[in-house]
Write a structure and sequence with these properties.
The complex is a heterotrimer of chains A (about 190), B (about 120) and C (about 400).
Chain A (H helix, E strand, L loop, with lengths): L1 E8 L4 H14 L3 E6 L9 E9 L14 E4 L19 E5 L4 H8 L4 E5 L1 H8 L6 H11 L9 H8 L3 H14 L1 E3 L6
Chain B lengths: L23 E2 L2 E2 L33 E5 L9 H5 L5 E3 L5 E3 L9 H5 L5 E5 L3
Antiparallel strand pairs in B: 1-2, 3-6, 4-5
Chain C lengths: L3 E5 H11 L4 E4 L6 H12 L6 E4 L3 H13 L4 E5 L1 H16 L5 E6 L13 H4 L7 E4 L3 H16 L7 E6 L7 E5 L3 H7 L23 H33 L6 E4 L6 E5 L3 H14 L4 E6 L1 E3 L3 H8 L4 E6 L10 H10 L7 E6 L9 H13 L3 H5 L2 E3 L5
Parallel strand pairs in C: 2-3, 2-4, 4-5, 5-7, 6-7, 10-11, 10-13, 13-14, 14-15
Antiparallel strand pairs in C: 1-8, 6-12, 9-11
Helix pairs in contact in C: 1-2, 1-6, 3-4, 6-8, 9-12
Classes of the chains: A alpha/beta (about 190), B mainly beta (about 120), C alpha/beta (about 400).
């Protein structure tokens, strides 16, 4: 089972990211589960969402305490929330930031593998909005290939309709531009 | 109006509910067994329509309306105002309270134009 | 088998109600039930569902409208949570005593206060005695199946009672997971047109909701009680019938790896899945432990429970509500009473946990097992029940 924790701000689409990835995995015949950190929805407040993907039915419904991947949709969250909390030894962080993965490893003193992409910039250029959920899916898929970019086409079409194409382009661009720093225990 | 009651099945005894726990029907003081839980309709429904006609309210009365026919103009205002629809028209065209239902509220006497209705104590 | 789709459980629940071809939906939105109602409203507005969606001003009205609608013979659905159920309370009892086959989804949430929107079972326990059929569901598939199933049982002329489907708020309602939708043909085959036992109709006058004087009230209650008891055979038969179509068979007390187990967990709702993981782990470590998942809450499955606990030395009952000043949580009190006459009745250990959505993980279940196994823990020994994980 792969367990992913998503950090974002209310309204940025962290839950949507988790949902679209879960649907893509389920469409492939896998089992998946996506859910928000339960509570009132507050635009702008730091929020988390959770995603599990497995080949077998998933029985736990608890929150994810030891993620394999942490996806950070908003750069400012990196300095607000301990995004690395409980992350597995070989777990990776995938962040929206203008800094590179290795720069972030050093700044945040996190030794885990660290991927980054300037998702806000890409989203502004491609969508004209600072909504980074589909962008960050691209960065995530570059890092861990539990589904492919092509698997995202159907869920995107169902969810976004006529703006699906734009979002796919955004995803693909992020996929290309994501940089990755391997685990660095000296960080 | 029924003068007697025949218990033919599940439908006839619901009016009992409306009679202070006693089987009170016109001209009947019955000792028929009260229904068991198996006799009730689903959801305590009453599928017998118009069963409230069985319900005697006449015994609530302490004052009885007496009509002085010499003053009555047969206008029917008492019939209109009676809250229990207890006032009925007689063959001669006068209006009288059906004492099976009349609760003795006195509204007819109050509303009567000619003052032909007098409320008299039941004991009189 | 039909295709599995990834969908939020609330949306799937609404879709199932739509597939059941509901005639009237009357509801007031409240977290965490909101998505169910919103989606039904969308389905009606978009023309996908030919039904009346009646937006009301409170839950009291929601259930009142549901009563009126059901009384005319319309297939009726409503849905609420927590405080909404509290507002609705008196009408829920009326709906049951009028024997109206209304289906209600109850997205379980704690009753305030302190103000909370998170999941536990304090809401459903407040209407335990309303006289409706009540079941708990464990996952999204379970919810979907029972949304259609509930109509069939509720509307069975031998039953004619409201049917309350409990689904854990957030833990189920807000999770996107794989669910097999029913084939439309399955629904046609399974769910007949509603033929109400009683119906308000101009052609045939009928009185519903008459006064029950002291001389008849007891009889009315006794008749209602019998209806709920008799409903059990329909509940069981209909599960069989549904299983023959879907391949998923449900039981009043679901047993998980109970064979020869000395200790049994007993859970309601979505906690069953998490507890089953703990059972797997503990069995691997050689522990004699199994799991009972109580699905049917009312009518209470007394015989099935006795059968399921036979041979067990201890039952660990997980309660997700408090009976203030009582003798344990509401479920434990019930289980103790149900097992009292067994020749060798097991020890009942009771943990109250998971209140207002506090996470209970498989490690927590393992800890509870550890505490119960020895019963050396002071708090377990000295009292009838324990608030698991409470900070001193």
């Amino acid at each position: 089972m792969i367990e992913i924790r998503l950090h974002g701000r209310g309204g940025q689409g962290a839950v949507t990211s988790a949902e679209l990835l879960a649907i893509a995995a389920i469409n492939k015949g896998k089992y998946a589960q996506a859910f928000p950190s339960f509570g009132p929805e507050r635009r702008g407040a730091p929020v988390t969402a959770f995603l599990r993907i497995d080949d077998d039915p998933i029985r736990t419904r608890a929150e994810i305490y030891n993620p394999d991947v942490v996806l950070v949709l908003d750069p400012s969250i990196l300095r607000l929330v301990n995004v690395a909390a409980g992350i597995k030894e070989d777990g990776v962080i995938v962040a929206n930031s203008k800094y590179s993965g290795s720069e972030l490893q050093n700044e945040l003193k996190i030794g885990n593998g660290f991927a980054s992409v300037n998702a806000t910039k890409i989203a502004m250029e491609e969508l004209g909005l600072p909504i980074t959920n589909t962008t960050m899916i691209g960065a995530l898929l570059k890092t861990r290939q539990f589904v492919t970019v092509d698997d995202m086409v159907d869920p995107f079409n169902d969810r976004f309709g006529r703006i699906a194409e734009k979002n796919l382009k955004t995803l693909k661009r992020a996929y290309e531009e994501t940089n990755f720093a391997e685990r660095n225990d000296s960080a | 109006m029924v003068d007697d009651v025949i218990f033919t099945g599940n439908h006839f005894w619901y009016p009992i509910l409306f009679s202070n726990g006693r089987l009170l029907r016109r001209n009947v003081v019955s000792t028929v067994k009260e229904p068991g839980w198996r006799d009730l309709e689903v959801g305590f429904a009453i599928s017998q329509s118009g069963s409230s006609r069985e319900y005697k309210t006449g015994d609530w009365r302490s004052l009885r309306p007496i009509v002085d026919k010499s003053k009555c103009i047969k206008c029917g205002i008492c019939y209109i105002f009676c809250p229990d629809m207890a006032v009925v028209k007689t063959e001669e065209g006068y209006f009288e309270a059906d004492l099976y239902y009349c609760k003795g509220c006195g509204i007819c006497a109050y509303e009567c134009f000619t003052g032909c209705i007098e409320m008299v104590a039941e004991e009189e | 088998m039909t295709k599995r789709v990834g969908v939020e459980v609330s949306i799937a629940a609404a879709e199932a109600v739509g597939m059941a071809d509901v005639d009237v939906v009357s509801a007031y939105p409240i977290t965490p039930q909101t998505h169910i109602v919103e989606h039904l409203s969308e389905m009606v507005a978009d023309g996908h569902l030919d039904a009346e969606f009646i937006p009301v001003e409170s839950e009291h009205s929601a259930m009142s409208v549901a009563c009126g609608s059901s009384a005319t013979g319309a297939r009726t659905f409503t849905c609420t949570s927590s405080q909404g159920l509290a507002v609705m309370n008196e009408v829920v009892f009326l709906a049951a005593s009028l024997r109206l086959p209304i289906v209600m989804a109850l997205a379980n949430r704690s009753l305030s206060g302190p103000l909370s929107i998170w999941n536990d079972h304090s809401d459903v326990m407040s209407i335990r005695d309303c006289g409706a059929i009540q079941i708990f569901t464990e996952n999204g598939q379970d919810v979907f199946d029972h949304m259609i199933y509930a109509f069939k049982v509720a509307e069975n002329p031998k039953v004619s009672l409201p049917f309350i489907v409990n689904l854990d708020g957030f833990l189920l309602t807000h999770v996107i997971e794989p669910i097999e939708y029913w084939d439309k043909e399955w629904v046609k085959q399974f769910l007949p047109e509603l033929e109400p036992v009683n119906r308000l109709h101009p052609d045939k006058a009928i009185t519903m909701g008459a006064l029950g004087m002291p001389n008849i009230f007891t009889e009315a209650k006794r008749a209602h009680e019998q209806a709920l008891l008799d409903a059990k055979s329909v509940v069981l038969d209909t599960w069989k019938e549904m299983g023959d179509i879907t391949g998923r068979y449900y039981h009043p007390v679901e047993e998980y790896k109970t064979e020869g187990a000395e200790t049994l967990f007993l859970t309601l709702g979505s906690f069953g899945e998490i507890a089953s993981l703990t059972v797997d782990e503990l069995q691997e470590q050689g522990e004699s432990v199994g799991l009972l998942k109580l699905r049917l809450w009312r009518p209470f499955p007394q015989e099935e429970l006795l059968e399921a606990v036979k041979g067990a030395k201890q039952v660990i009952v997980i309660d997700r509500a408090v009976t203030f000043g009582g003798v344990g949580g509401p479920v434990a009190a019930e289980i103790r009473s149900a097992l009292y006459h067994m020749e060798e009745s097991p020890v009942i250990t009771n943990y109250i946990c998971g209140l207002a959505g506090r996470d209970v993980t498989r490690k927590d279940f393992a800890k509870m097992y550890e505490m119960s196994k020895s019963r050396e823990n002071d708090s377990v020994k000295q009292s009838e029940y324990v608030f698991y994980g409470v900070r001193e």
